Amino acid sequence: MYEFDQVVDASEAEPSLPTAFHLAQNHPNPFNPRTTISFRLRERALATLEIYNVFGQRVRTLFNESKSAGEYRVEWDGTDDNGSVVASGVFLYRLSVGDFVEVKKMTFLK
Q: Please, what are the domains in the chain?
């Protein structure tokens, strides 16, 4: 017979850390005035999340800092680095973590 000091319900257990880097599709998409971008980091690393227009010009850097392994959500309000609202259109968002780079497309509608 086994004895347990504490029984932990599976729903109360801490989630495991991600095993891979991943950039999810933003939601909602299309969006106005805000959208959420989610991503996962498998290890502590310098991570950069940037927004580009269709001409490849950087519009906004959402962050560029060291992050621990885990899941993250970042909100973008459709503004550039100067705080001006961008024009309606298609934008690309790019997550860079070391050698890992992933890009997704999103649409901003006014």
A: 19-108 (2.60.40.1930)
Query: What pLDDT score was predicted for residue 18?
Result: 80
Contacts of residue 14, Cβ cutoff 8 Å, sequence gap at least 6: none
Distances (CA, A) of 46 to 98, 100, 110: 7, 11, 33
Q: Which residues of 12-38 are buried (b: 16+ CB within 10 A; e: fewer)?
A: eeeeeeeeebebeebeeeebeeebebe
pTM for the whole structure: 0.83
How many angstroms separate the CA atoms of 74 and 64, rounded?
12
